[in-house]
Amino acid sequence: MSEPPVDPTTTEAWARLAALADGFVPDLRSWFADDPGRVDRLTFTAGDLHVDLSKNLLGEQVLDALLALGEEVGLAARRDAMFAGEHINVTEDRAVLHTALRRPAGEPLEVDGQDVDADVHEVLRRVYDFADRVRSGAWTGVTGQRIRTVVNIGIGGSDLGPVMAYEALAPYRQDGLQCRFISNIDPTDAAQKLAGLDPATTLFIVSSKTFGTLETLTNARLCKAWLLDGLRAAGAIGDDDADAVARHFVAVSTALDKVAAFGIDPANAFGFWDWVGGRYSVDSAIGTSLVVAIGPERFAELLAGMHAIDEHVRTADPAANVPALMGLLNVWYVNFLGAQTHAVLPYAQLLHRFPAYLQQLTMESNGKGVRWDGTPVTTETGEVFWGEPGTNGQHAFFQLLHQGTLLVPADFIAVADPAYPLTDGDTDVHGLFLANFFAQTKALAFGKTADEVRAEGTAEAIVPARVFEGNRPTTSIMAPALTPSVLGQLIALYEHITFTQGVVWGIDSFDQWGVELGKQLAQQVAPAVAGDAEALAEQDPSTSALISYYLGHRDR
Ligand code: F6P
């Protein structure tokens, strides 16, 4: 049984932070002008990541108090308990061992009687072997043709990680082999993703940790029917479906019995374990579609990148431990300066799904109102994570970041070497792109005073509208290039930031009970939607009226 969480609000560090926040007046202009060492002191390295915290709203005292808070809530001990496989997922009584998925082979780790090292590397070997066969054309469909499209069917953690990484690592994909991702139970998703595909050259990966998710199983059935109908119409198969399903369907799950019940040969199933949370599973067999796309070698680099950050988290001094610092900084913003949202702004088009990926990681992990011992949280928890790639965001929501009244800490992410180094005459377009990154973080930090606006000859009446207050906090994260390793490092960085915040708040960051009620009610409401009058009568008046509207307007 886990120790009850320390109430952070009772710590001495919390009192110090509250005192520092009282009447806190940030002044990045002066802090930079008066302290030539600020940037060096607040710039850190984790793996290949260069992380500049200097444009954040903190000085030495806040930093000291945040580090003290980490100590007082027992951050290091909880981290060690996680790495050791203790059951820190208290409400589900499970270990939390996504970090074990990326450990090099041969480092023994036994948890709850399981040889984790052997199991992880055995599944990896099978996934790699499968991916190699698809990539080489050795794995064929039922007509003997090689596979051209791999369709991952999954949702949440069984979709967001693979699709995000597939997009991010586009330059590493094998030519002539594409992946598509079906997640939504809205049949439009399957209809659009299947459009133009040839069943004979399409292979489906049904990815579901529980193999009980309504969306995924519905889409899997839909795809199975599409496959068999298509093959039959082409005269490729007779009445016997089994061979076609075996050659065109594989599965990834922790529930291999349910995979078999669905009709997928267990020989074509890749397992993982209950100690891998869905939103922490891109580095498990859930990443199979990605392995097919980029190949085992590149996937191994992604794992190595994640492991490098795990090692950093495990061994770096707290004062230089980047994920811990970033997590503690988020606590400062949420609990002391009143921030409710956090922007993630990749200046890398390939990372366009990274904010969506982080939404599940952070909000499903820390959007909780009770602590791991069942008692209510003692302070605000969670942040709404959101974002879009720059520079698109600049022409959409940056107005609010620059001049709005809400405090929105923002992470800017960029790489030095672009995947596609295009030039426009003599202009290095990627350089121009990054000039925007640098300019935006500068504008947000230092703003523009009324005198500076006046000096530009602005009419007095509109001076106030053109003033930028500055002191809008940003973290700048840079890396040499968006390699598989760097992507792995970014993912692990945010996993550990999320962990840090969860520990401070005393939250079990690894359960997700908050998604259950909606699932239960969908099952209860479904008969009413299907026209069952009795079930309709049991609904509340608003729900009943909405269903009636639907029933009255469909098939028009
Ligand atoms: O409903 C939330 C959730 O349980 C996520 O935590 C998970 O990633 C997703 O559904 C999909 O679950 P599964 O992989 O079991 O289909």
From TrEMBL:
Pathway: Carbohydrate biosynthesis; gluconeogenesis; Carbohydrate degradation; glycolysis; D-glyceraldehyde 3-phosphate and glycerone phosphate from D-glucose: step 2/4. Keywords: Cytoplasm, Gluconeogenesis, Glycolysis, Isomerase. It comes from the Bacteria. One of its GO terms (cellular component) is cytosol. One of its GO terms (molecular function) is carbohydrate derivative binding. Pfam families: PGI. Its EC number is 5.3.1.9. It catalyses: alpha-D-glucose 6-phosphate = beta-D-fructose 6-phosphate. Transmembrane segments: none annotated. One of its GO terms (biological process) is glycolytic process. The active site is at 364 (proton donor), 395, 519. It is found in: Cytoplasm. Catalyzes the reversible isomerization of glucose-6-phosphate to fructose-6-phosphate. Belongs to the GPI family. This is Glucose-6-phosphate isomerase. It comes from Nocardioides guangzhouensis.
